[in-house]
Protein 1
Amino acid sequence: MFIPDDVCDLVQIDLARVRALRAALTAPETVQTLADTFSVLGDPTRVRILDALSHGELCVCDLAAVLRLSQSAVSHQLRLLRGLRLVRPRRDGRVVFYSLDDQHIMAIFRQTLQHVEEDQSAKGATGARGAKGAEGRRR
Amino acid sequence: MFIPDDVCDLVQIDLARVRALRAALTAPETVQTLADTFSVLGDPTRVRILDALSHGELCVCDLAAVLRLSQSAVSHQLRLLRGLRLVRPRRDGRVVFYSLDDQHIMAIFRQTLQHVEEDQSAKGATGARGAKGAEGRRR
DNA sequence: TGAACATATGAGCAGTTGCTCATACGTTAC
DNA sequence: GTAACGTATGAGCAACTGCTCATATGTTCA
């Protein structure tokens, strides 16, 4: 679909500003990287894995036991988390222990929770159903 | 699928720890909320929208023009962002201006970029393809 | 009131995701 | 070597996502 510089013909539409803004936008690769990272964090199972690992390193099968997930499911998810260097493996014999690879993640979790909590207290719960199906996404 | 307390039968597997950890885990609703929020942030289009709005409020059609997206696409995404209170609408006649609803988001972006950058510098680029298809996801 | 316009939303489709199942890989013990 | 075991991974399927198209809603102005 073709989208011209000016989409609507209101006077208020600020064409100069539109063009200036385009130059000020974050680079596409950076945007993609941000989105990829958030995408990986945007799954309850992976959040739970990171949460569990925040208490210390765990082998795959203990992780599966803690979260009541299959070994395969955990392993698949760890692969993704490894890919973004959110977790780090350490082999000891046939057991592989995983730990958080980075302090930032927990800081990001904290900050995000702050956002959510500020929401609920400061603004009341009008239609706070979290858009994307905050409920009913588990299978 | 049934998943017992202990998945594997190695001696190293720490059953007591598994049980203790279960009690220490973050509450399911909190996990879901975190995941929902990250899920919304985990899309390039929405990241771009938030990035654009970080420079100041914009009406829907200017936003569409800046990002070269259809009005419909932008509106659908704004709906999601509104749902999680990441953006806030302000009506002025028939024009609706959107702005960031929260300072936290930009802080989260910054922190996440720090994580990514630390990756690339400190750890070299061995297999840094970001798992989930960092490239080739645009259509 | 009705035309024009900015925005919102429902339906539908192609692409993606997270799981399970089956199986391969890597290490240890015999 | 081979058996056992912890982990990793490919295929495949059901559910979900983000877009477009068509259309509804809400506001302004004549």
Note: Residues 1, 59-61, 71-72, 74-76, 78-79, 91, 93-96, 132-133, 137, 139 of chain B lie near DNA strand C (CB under 10 Å from a C1').
Protein 2
Amino acid sequence: MANRAKATIFDIAREAGVSKSTVSLVLQGSGLIRPETASKVRKAIEDVGYVYNRGAANLRKAHSNVIGMVINDLTNPFFAELAVGMERVFQSAGIVPFIANTAENPVRQEEVLKSLMEQGVAGLIVSPARGTTPGAFRRIETAGLPVVFAMRRLPESRIPVIAPDNHRGAYLATAHLIGKGHRRLVFFGGSSDLVVYHERLGGFREACETQGISDRDTLVVEGETSRRGGIACLETALAMAEPPTAALCFNDAVAFGAMLALRKRGLEPGVDFAIVGFDDVAEAEHYMPALTSVAVDSAGLGERAAHVMLKMIQSRTTRAEDHIGAVNLVVRESCGPDRRIRNRAAGSGGAA
Amino acid sequence: MANRAKATIFDIAREAGVSKSTVSLVLQGSGLIRPETASKVRKAIEDVGYVYNRGAANLRKAHSNVIGMVINDLTNPFFAELAVGMERVFQSAGIVPFIANTAENPVRQEEVLKSLMEQGVAGLIVSPARGTTPGAFRRIETAGLPVVFAMRRLPESRIPVIAPDNHRGAYLATAHLIGKGHRRLVFFGGSSDLVVYHERLGGFREACETQGISDRDTLVVEGETSRRGGIACLETALAMAEPPTAALCFNDAVAFGAMLALRKRGLEPGVDFAIVGFDDVAEAEHYMPALTSVAVDSAGLGERAAHVMLKMIQSRTTRAEDHIGAVNLVVRESCGPDRRIRNRAAGSGGAA
DNA sequence: TTGATTTATTGGAACGTTCCATTTAGTAGC
DNA sequence: GCTACTAAATGGAACGTTCCAATAAATCAA
């Protein structure tokens, strides 16, 4: 069985006593060949341990069946979820997604994109690394390859974007805190080189304005988007003269960090200080106390992105509509009312 | 710029006024071409927006520069870490790893492996899905493609394995619990269709035997390897007539679940009941209480697996030594001594 | 000057497939 | 028995590279 040199359709042809063209037809599941011939060929394929050479095929065929998925941080379950969502729909479309991780490194991203293109992918779904230069996708665009951005967008690009409604999510969360009676609010974590940051911060600010919280009572503490960053943010905030009583965090990791830091100081999250997260990762529900967070349905967005990509490939276009996914605030235990001014609050739905 | 039909080396050749062979040589960085000619060619490449067709190249070249990484569950940060470790070393070797997720589904795994082979990968690093049939890798083996298993092994396979020393890890953890004075121990989570399960359970059992804990005082509760599974395990264990006082959990997720369930019953993990996890994911350190766990260094194992693969490719072999990675127990706060029999314990290192 | 040697460049065949146009065999109509 | 058609199978060219052997140009030794 299985010679050293790998088998080709010619070997199969010889084995089955037909021509290479017939083998090719069988491989493609053409209805033109007689069933008996087909099964004879299929047996030969099995016997010689043949493996299809897609590279050779793509030389003649219009499009390949692989699409590339470029993710900025696979170790963040939030993005991993996104990838998994995409995979679900591609799988049922007979497309194989290859995932590559850029580890938030634009140089690495460049390499990965290049490699994916050379491999002849039919399309690209990208969650761009922080610090991606505006021109990074020019090559790809001029090559006419369909691309969609997921979760993140680039400042001035015309590439379609699939992302959650960050502004609204932040607005809802902030409004909730204000409704609970909080009057001194802080936004924790993130940094301004991310478009998402501005979107979320924008929602936070709008809610404050709308609901009559003055600028002097809102605070913004930038920081790493990690547990560690959250810890640092909380320390900073509580060191202030008139510290805030509630925080909207850039994401759940920051929120977990903040809660940790509260505990360390003997404060109880949700009682002594209200915390709201963003993304609603699986862990949020199981935390102690369970974290109130803005659910963005990343798997759903992944599916959406995959569908958009499928449609783009099918209609051979490189344009598509943006899709802003609905978000909703999942209220759990991490954000009770402001204890010190409980009486002042007209309070919408106020269990402690 | 950039015509519709994609540019080939012929287009570049015309543009630069040289032959296709010269262009090919430049592309490969051959030292044979005059520097001025080379830069002329490079300019042309830039001008026409050329993208290299690796499929065509692989038709003639011996080996491709992509290796496939097949992961059973990308949403588990533990495996994501593994992937990231591998990526680090491949990157510096000029190899592009494509990651594919099987979502613990053997059928999906089959598809993914097939696709990767068709793509002409140079090798495969696989963390096999639960329930993988013994024959699943026969095709690949007869094709002479180098494969290494990471983290998990298949019952009777000759494919090299890179994995942590599960037995020893479990032994260490169990011995630690016994040293703390616990006499009724339980093993939480996992199921017997995983080789890893038997390894870890084996370490647990050996420690119990060696240290004189009778079979009657040890308990095994199978369950999902998730938070949910951990919750269920704890409920089962505490419902018993003479419940255990300490648990070794199959992995950290199970441990988190168990701690959650303890809290729900008003019991304090680490004080009223000792919990040890396995894997030492990032979260373990930040939990409340911080989780004692067996650190396996998954990123390090990933790097190791990548190195082994590199060596296999280089020496054109399909054999390699197994590598069992060192583990160590990271003691934190989740496993104090048995309160009820504190006096009986000779106790090695016994802060509550 | 001539032949030998080195340096730079080139054309052609090959890689494993698909697709098209053609051939061959089989069936129906008359 | 002939033509007209359909169904099944086939050979050849093409896809975009790499590699090898061959050429052309430049340099050197005598």
Note: Residues 18-22, 25, 32-34, 37, 56, 58-61 of chain B lie near DNA strand C (CB under 10 Å from a C1').
